[in-house]
């Protein structure tokens, strides 16, 4: 069930850990990846961290959440990640939500909503499926503006870079073939 009223102390903790996830997202962005970061916490201690690396690793499963869950399983020496909270800057996709259910995390806290592929309520809610043998508690929208801004700034910058590259190629092509089309 999605949290509706969060105690002030819980909200402060959630914001602290989401800021940590935002810093991890910066690592993804520095690598040319979509800036998504994730941190798994148990008893107010970091168990694992992850950030997007699917392009770098040539791996469609190298999402921040998956990398974090993999690292956590090794750290805890268990594929069950009971009594943990995963903080992620973007609403999980179906793949990541499925991994969260299978790993039995207790709670996921995310920042920005994903209207195209969000599987924690935006498009579909896989974390709260009553048919599954485990449901993950969800807290949505923590530092949503900062998380969404980080993503939108990244994509805006990427579009500008692609536009500049296209213009540069067109200019180079015009220099190489100045008389093209003349008979």
Summarize this structure briefly.
Helices cover 45% and strands 16% of the residues.
Structural description of this entry:
With 183 residues, this protein is an alpha/beta fold. Strands 2-1-3-4-5 form a 5-stranded mixed β-sheet. The model has no long low-confidence stretch (mean pLDDT 93). Helix 4 links the parallel strand 3 (85-90) and strand 4 (107-112). It is 45% helix and 16% strand. Homodimer. Keywords: Hydrolase, Metal-binding, tRNA processing, Zinc. Residues 12-123 form the CMP/dCMP-type deaminase domain. Catalyzes the deamination of adenosine to inosine at the wobble position 34 of tRNA(Arg2). It comes from Shewanella electrica.
How large is the radius of gyration?
20 Å
Major beta sheet, strand line-up: 2-1-3-4-5
SSE-based structural type? alpha/beta
- Major beta sheet, specifics? 5 strands, mixed
Strand content: 15-25%
Number of helices: 5
Question: How many β-strand stretches?
Answer: 5
Task: Tell the overall outline.
Answer: elongated
Mean pLDDT equals 93
- What level of helicity do the residues show? 40-55%
> Distance between termini?
72 Å
The helix-strand sequence is HEEHHEHEEH
Unreliable spans are none
